[in-house]
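Tokens for chain A. Residues wanted.
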């Protein structure tokens, strides 16, 4: 995974200090379960880092345009995506994280005062990608027999077995209790 290093300037180590950072994040492909999202243009991140006393709080957004293929018709389509970035870095190892924080919710600031933003931006995007990517909510999909994209036209294939069972007037019989 490509890194995106954010160096924390000395000024941020005074309590209540605050700094804004923004830039581009070139991410070719994001893998979300079985789905791949590609980004033709670099994503834009805008983050704030603030000093809470014993930790640095990272908040902000990452946005861009994702391209993937529709789970039903397999056509590729693009959509805008914006994720909320969040991170929490203890300044000194051994400092206590707030009591309600799970161990995976914070890190200790690396000794070189450099944060790799890449995993935080990717985590933000992963929360926003759809569970099942569809080019549109009512995508008609493709004909399982001839492969016609049914959003673009119809085909003359016989209904598939699945549909013909549903339309068969005798189909209800299979649900009747039978005497053995
Ligand atoms: Zn589709
Ligand atoms: Zn067909």
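Reply:
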């Amino acid at each position: 995974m490509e890194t995106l290093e954010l160096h924390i300037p000395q000024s941020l180590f005074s309590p209540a200090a605050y700094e804004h950072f923004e830039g581009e994040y070139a991410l070719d492909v994001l893998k979300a379960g079985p789905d791949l999202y590609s980004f033709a243009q670099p994503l834009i991140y805008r983050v704030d880092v603030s000093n809470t006393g014993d930790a640095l709080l990272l908040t902000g957004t990452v946005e861009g345009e994702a391209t993937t293929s529709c789970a039903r018709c397999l056509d590729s389509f693009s959509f805008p995506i914006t994720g909320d970035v969040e991170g929490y870095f203890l300044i000194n190892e051994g400092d206590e994280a707030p009591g309600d924080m799970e161990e995976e919710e914070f890190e200790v600031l690396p000794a070189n005062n450099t944060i790799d933003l890449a995993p935080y931006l990717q985590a933000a995007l992963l929360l926003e990608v759809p569970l099942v990517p569809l080019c549109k909510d009512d995508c008609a999909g493709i004909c399982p027999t001839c492969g016609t994209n049914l959003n673009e036209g119809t085909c003359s294939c016989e209904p598939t077995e699945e549909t013909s069972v549903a339309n068969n007037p005798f189909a209800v019989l299979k649900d009747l209790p039978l005497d053995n």
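The longest strand covers residues 55-69. The mean pLDDT is 89.
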